Structure of Transketolase:
Amino acid sequence: MTMEAERTLGEEQLTQLGELAAQLRVDSIRCSTKAASGHPTSSLSAADLLAVLISRHVRYDWAEPGNRANDHLIFSKGHASPLLYAVFKAVGAISDQELVDTYRQFGSRLQGHPTPALPWVDVATGSLGQGLPVGVGIALAGQYLDQLPYHVWVLCGDSETAEGSVWEALDKAGHYGLRNLTVLVDVNRLGQRGPTELEWDLDTYRRRVEAFGCQAIVVDGHDLAAIDDALGRARQATGPTVVLARTVKGKGVPEIENKPDWHGKPLKPDLAERAIDALGGVRQIRVTGPQPEPAPPTGAPTGQPVQLPRYDRGAKVATRNAYGDALRAIGVRRDVVVLDGEVSDSTRADRFTDAYPDRYFEMFISEQQMVAAAVGLQVRGYRPFASTFAAFFSRAYDFVRMAGVSRADIALSGSHAGVEIGADGPSQMGLEDLAAMRAVQGSTVLYPSDAVSCAALVAQMVDRKGVNYLRTTRGGHPVLYDNDEPFPVGGSKLLRGGDDDRVALIGAGVTVHNCLAAADELASAGINARVIDLYSVKPLDRERLLAAVRDTGGRLVVVEDHYPEGGLGSAVLESLADLAEPIRLTHLAVRGLPTSGTPTELMDQAGIGVSAIVAAARASV
């Protein structure tokens, strides 16, 4: 079935679209019933929207999903995966057999919620409220960086509009005037446990959308001609458009239409058979939609060679300053993009902004949208760096978690970590971030102790796969290393050490400096202490730790400016858990609720200061 996107649909075209919508409904029922699992009713309500969209408006070469000119289709309501996979069958991307026989089965790429295991899926969805914010990131890339005419289409459910991230996304879409973004909201009135907050109050939806600077178009979501007209207007709009489609959950199956208690429940075989018969039976319609315009070839990602900043040994430099300096240095690469959450003067991301304002996106205090935009930008091949205070990434943690599921390649920098930040108090202190970031699947967690190591690690993050997290320090601390010293991810540094070491002091970031001072004090008392800078928290340098266990008789003191759960101490213990020989590990961490004070006062109070390290080392020997 081929259709030209003319403004007025004829009777034959309407009939063809109706047949395609029926096929999408039938196939959504077939695959979910066969799997005895899935969300068919959420798929049935949006089938008319998708039939019109893929036939007449999405410009996509389904045989070449890597085509830079392709439109992007994101199912923010990822639980409607039966509909998405039915679409993939209709366009010839997958077979009928794969759809019906493998959906939700072990080892299948047709998982319960979409993931990039399928080449036509940009990002994993299913955690509601995430697809639209990611779509904003893709649209930012298209309008401001790629400058290509591709369009971003996002299907949302009405239930997920209760998520604040949806409104963060619409706010930023309006702020940046994203004319290449269209959101289709499937307003089917019923959520998981009953009616949604607004049910079919389309006027309230409209007023909310318009308040965020977006155009709202209200349509009957089962009127094919009205849908077509709305999508045509959206593509020609001068800003972001939200199509608010009034639909019926379970549409096409009278026994379950607009009835509660059917969310996430497949139809039993007998009901499925009656429904498929009522919808006209199984079809094998093949759709050929509009094709994208040719895209020019991409340029090389690098311009001039990267020249990292250089620092004098012993000079006091905050690692957050080195982060900003390194960002500016790697900015010679045209694929590097930076985002921040209105704290760039503190994270030092503003140093990149001053040099490359066209590749900086201010997300204001919208941390969820910031991480989502980074994920969207990397879909288009960019290398995004997003920064805020370490504590505030907790607001966006589900987006970080889902970035891991998406296998997204992003770099995050959390500044103002630990009690070291001083007088601002506990609300500003990132004390949980190492644990959170370590738990993300496939993540890398880095915590440099000085400016040289920080700059070197930033340079590696730009090409490293997965979610990469860098923890930086507010205060200035002495530069420990010579410029050009290598800092491989997964490595560590031995700052003090010899064959007669009696204890190993293990730190990262600010506590490395406390360990060095403690080692000097211990040396004056005749106790040789090894000092290890464990700058790579994940992956960890297990070989260095094994050597420390062997050489010190298992006497280890781990010191971290973090809560004891899940941070550096946990990483060390996990790496040594399979040792047959015993270790005597003392774990110094922040165990109480901090207050305001100077960095020294707060570290001493927390038991991670120099005197506490000396006492722990003495007790161990």
Observations:
- The radius of gyration is 28 Å.
